[in-house]
Amino acid sequence: MKVFLPIAILAIIALALLVSCSSIPKGAVAIKPFDKGRYLGTWYEIARMDFRFERNLNNTTANYSLNDDGSIKVVNRGFNYITNKWSEATGKAKPRGTGDEAKLKVSFFGPFYGGYNVIALDDQYKYALVAGNNLKYLWILSRETSIPDDIRQKYLEIADKLGFKTAALIWVEQKKK
Q1: Which CATH class is domain 4-171?
Q2: What are the backbone dihedrals phi and psi of residue 160, each rounded to the nearest 5 degrees, phi first?
């Protein structure tokens, strides 16, 4: 029994990690086909659901570049308007599945991955709606510091239909520093 319990606990933790990084909110569908090469580069965060790792940040960006092993280097950056300091986190993203779908898993903390699902994307790869594992994580991204009203409205409608509480979105201030 003493040997079985630690193995059972590890198995439960492993299963929880596997499920958490492979999930997508119910009803959401990741973009397919997806060209990760076109997705690379800098994205400005237009809106997000509040969560502790980005709390009090404005001027937030995500920069994606290719690592030698084919994974994607993720550098998230933002200005904390409370501490008056820049904050930066570097992580890694890997495709889930065959790679032709906009379903990725992202890690900033070693072996712990979270879902990153592009659920809306324009043909020019200028605007993206990204969902995490569940309805607590949502981002609206743009290649520019703003987004056209029609795209904003379209993405809000998609998110609303999926059950996201879009009234709770934080609209990020993007100023040149």
Answers
A1: mainly beta
A2: -60, -45
